[in-house]
Specification:
4 helices, single chain, 234 residues
Length: 234
């Protein structure tokens, strides 16, 4: 997994200019276009040879919640990697935005190690937007123009496919608190959106690993201490 260590320039998503949908797609019903886009994402991921168990796929499980305080709970493989696959955007200029909200739970003894952008992700313009906060519901107002209350957020584009987004999300910006990866056990909620007209596809792979046993580090330190003592006696 490649890490993107340099911060991506960040702009509040609601200030971004909308992007027009391709002309041949505008006549399709909105839900039909979303389904086709999700299927295309799944096909692209399969062609790339990436086998990631799906925690949630909007094609088979239905639309993720559009309300932050009622975020859809997604069960992750523990330990393991699970995908969240969906679409966002809006049907017409000035129409409602299809914001997606979901939450996960990292159990005690485990940590969220990576959040990787999957092949097939296709923003409407240059970048999509994902944000996260602590807790099982997303309470930050998407229209506030501030990242206060967020752990972090990131813009992402096709050049980020295969990259772990957590290092970028963890950089404090516009009021977000920031964090150091990996993230410890706890509940986390996520917000995904694009403001352009059309259907944008996204796929994220969440990797959960066991926290290294403290006893391992203590045993190593004890061994080094004994070795140092033996050397001093020589």
């Amino acid at each position: 997994m490649r890490l993107r260590l340099a911060p991506t320039p960040m702009t509040p998503p609601l200030l971004a200019e909308p992007h027009a949908a391709p002309a041949r797609s505008r006549g399709l019903p909105w839900l039909h276009r979303c389904a086709l886009a999700s299927l295309a994402l799944a096909a692209t991921t399969a062609q790339a040879g990436i086998a990631v168990p799906v925690g949630w796929d909007e094609v088979t499980r239905g639309d993720l919640s559009n309300t932050g305080t009622a975020a859809t709970f997604v069960t992750l493989a523990v330990p393991g990697t699970s995908a969240v696959v969906g679409t966002t955007g809006r049907a017409v200029t000035g129409g409602p935005i299809d914001r997606d909200y979901f939450s996960i739970l990292v159990p005690t003894g485990f940590q969220l190690t990576a959040l990787t952008l999957l092949p097939g992700t296709q923003p409407l313009g240059d970048a999509g937007f994902i944000a996260m906060m602590s807790g099982s519901s997303f309470t930050v107002d998407p229209n506030s123009g501030s990242a206060a209350g967020l752990l972090g957020f990131s813009l992402y584009g096709v050049n980020d496919i295969g990259n772990d987004l957590l290092p970028t999300m963890g950089i404090p910006s516009l009021g977000s608190s920031g964090f150091d990866a990996p993230l410890p056990a706890g509940a986390y909620s996520f917000w995904v959106q694009e403001t352009g007209v059309g259907v944008a596809t996204y796929g994220f792979a969440f990797t959960v690993t066991a926290v290294p046993e403290p006893a391992t580090a203590l045993t190593l330190l004890a061994g080094l201490g004994l070795l140092a003592a033996a050397l001093r006696r020589r």
